[in-house]
Design brief:
By secondary structure, the chain is of the alpha/beta class. It has ten helices and nine strands. The structure holds pantoate (PAF).
Length: 280
């Protein structure tokens, strides 16, 4: 496994990599969810192609009061996991390598980014789009793989790749969960034992809301109100948002129409977790 820490080296390597090149962008602190993406990447790259995993905690997607400095950095352990997963190349630049101090260009998706996480985290998706566009240009993948836990991010990156004609096929992978349903996330390690137990309320609420819709609940407001009440029964949970929206436009309508995306962002202490369930 080769580790490229500079943009220039990564660019030189990517010009000569056997194709298809499959990229898995991550912020490191790898867990089984990331490894599932790498496994999928290996399937797509096949015997001849190349798998590239980026490890980069991207400062531009964190707000001023968010957890950029606290975000877990586990570079050695990540490299060990990637070596065992037989990843070909790790791209691990530092922020000074990725961003010029006087940078003045960003990529903004201006429609899907207005709602949900975009409404609670102003500038977040512009940071994500900018770094992913840069990763695409530096590593020149044919395919890029993203997890479905970040459903809104996935929708926005598909839109960006389409709008900017990136010759990259975006492939998604289902959310990997703990046995009790909690979606794997690098931030789960910040939860206390009590918060960790409480956090299962997100997925159990999404599942119960799904049942209610399948049993005939038609009004979006009724479903959203019920989800809000269900999560609020857990005293450690502080809701950022819960929504039932169209999975393509991310907009609600008065009545639930299939397919529908149920999504939630909830704080447990200072840890913000997101999850979703797509009903087709
Ligand atoms: O999903 C993430 O880990 C990040 O948002 C990404 C796509 C690697 C961009 O920094």
């Amino acid at each position: 496994m080769q580790i490229a820490k500079s943009v220039r080296l990564m660019q030189r390597l990517s010009g000569a990599l056997p194709r298809p090149v499959v990229l898995v962008p991550t912020m490191g602190a790898l867990h089984a969810g990331h490894l599932a993406l790498v496994k999928k990447a290996k399937r797509f790259s096949g015997r001849v192609g190349s798998t590239v995993v980026s490890l980069f905690v991207n400062p531009t997607q964190f707000g001023p009061v968010e957890d950029f400095h606290k975000y877990p950095r586990t570079f050695q352990a990540d490299c060990e996991l990637l070596r065992n997963a037989r990843c070909g190349i790790v791209f691990a630049p530092n922020p000074e390598e990725m961003y010029f101090s006087d940078k003045s260009t960003t990529v903004v998706e201006s429609e899907l980014s207005r709602v949900m996480c975009g409404a609670s985290r102003p500038g977040h998706f512009s940071g994500v789009c900018t770094v992913v566009a840069k990763l695409f240009l530096i590593t020149r993948p044919n395919i890029a793989i993203f997890g479905e836990k970040d459903f809104q991010q996935l929708a926005i990156l598909r839109r960006m790749a389409r709008d900017l004609n990136f010759p990259v096929r975006i492939v998604s992978h289902p959310t990997v969960r703990e046995k009790d349903g909690l979606a794997l996330s690098s931030r789960n390690r910040f939860l206390t034992n009590k918060e960790r137990r409480a956090a299962t309320v997100i997925f159990s609420t999404l599942l119960e809301a799904e049942q209610k819709i399948r049993n005939g609940w038609h009004l979006t407001s009724r479903v959203e109100d019920w989800m809000r009440a269900s999560i609020s029964e857990e005293e450690l949970a502080k809701i950022d948002y819960v929504v039932a929206v169209d999975p393509v436009t991310l907009q609600p309508s008065d009545r639930i129409r299939m397919p529908v995306l149920l999504a939630a962002a909830v704080f447990f202490g200072s840890t913000r977790l997101i999850d979703n369930r797509l009903l087709e």
